[in-house]
Write a structure and sequence with these properties.
CATH architecture: 2-Layer Sandwich
Helix content: 25-40%
Order of helices and strands: HEEHEHEE
Distance between the termini: 16 Å
Number of helices: 3
Structural class: alpha+beta
Number of domains: 1
Length: 156
């Protein structure tokens, strides 16, 4: 078990299986020293635990937890490409999309669910640049979607 997965276990979390794509794409792709994930929905066992807009059907607190689930799914996708999460040198960028009610402006707080998890399990390597974007709707009516870009250690 990698140190990253040990840290997840300390937090009471486990790395899920890689979420199956819902369209024509791969969950993650390596290009040189970088791995890019496709947008990861908060799938748990092949299903969305919640649907709808944040600030309407989904509370900001629920959405923050869903963002954490998205980050776990992204880490699983990255592991499927590089084999060991300890090969992550740095999370370079996190892009978070929040399906938002018309008056909801708390997208940064929602995406903190992903950012805080990455910091907890990767330490300094989890500190990243980020965008948190409000959108009208996401695939399958998901409340949140996360994509990651990470740099892999040389020789890994």
């Amino acid at each position: 078990m990698s140190k990253v997965e040990e840290k997840l276990a300390e937090l009471g979390l486990t790395l899920p299986p890689v979420a199956a794509p819902v369209a024509a794409y791969v969950p993650a792709l390596r290009s040189g020293e970088f791995v890019f994930t496709s947008g990861q929905l908060p799938m748990v066992g092949g299903k969305l635990p919640s649907t709808g807009k944040v600030g309407a059907e989904v509370t900001p607190e629920e959405a923050k937890q869903l963002a954490q689930t998205c980050a776990l799914n992204a880490l699983a996708a990255i592991k499927s490409v590089i084999g060991d999460l300890d090969h992550i040198e740095r999370v370079v960028k996190v892009v978070g999309f929040v399906a938002s009610a018309a008056d909801f402006t708390g997208q940064p707080g929602v995406i903190n669910g992903a950012s805080e998890l990455l910091g907890q399990v990767l330490g300094e390597a989890g500190v990243h640049a980020r965008s948190a974007v409000g959108v009208a709707v996401l695939p399958l009516d998901a409340p949140v979607e996360i994509e990651l870009q990470v740099r892999v250690k040389a020789g890994a």
